[in-house]
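Repro:
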Amino acid sequence: MSLELADVAIPDSQLAREITEFVRDTESPLLFNHSSRVYYFGALAGLKRGLKFDRELLYAGAMFHDVGLMPTHSSAHERFEVDGANAAREFLRARGIAQQDIDLVWTSIALHTTPGIPQHMHPVIALVTAGVEMDVLGLTYHEYSHMERDAVVHAHPRTPHFKEDIIQTFYDGIKHKPDTTFGNVKADVIADKDPHFHAGNFCSVIRRSAWGA
């Protein structure tokens, strides 16, 4: 364990070990390493912001946040974020975790691609999104030291072509239900990969509604 990550080490608990085993067996190595980096970047952000948070719950949210992209946990009509949140809820409920804690993890996963809202919510919710935004978008890249960034990536390496690999992985996980991306950043992923995709239009939906003028 690098010194830079010692303060945000993955909890040494039975639950954390079971989460690791489940996600490692469920996701591709690319997503497993990405989700692990999301935990570390999220936890480091929590320390930098002076937030109090439960590392075990943050780990659950970070590790399950992309499980909904996997065929084994992908529904026909729900957003992939909801599929992942539901998988986490089922996993945690089976292990006797308190409902209020399950609800925090569920919400952290369900909202992780909804910018501008999670940051104002409970630290577990805010920090899952913070970790995702750092690892995928680099929005807070300069808030982390060179040593911190290197330590996280050394522990859980990025693929040589991570940017294109992760976009392709997102697309593969949602291409069978493009309508679930309406009003969400994943509509950009579909549009990037499918030249025939037409994103939903909020104004058109209003005009087609059953209400009168």
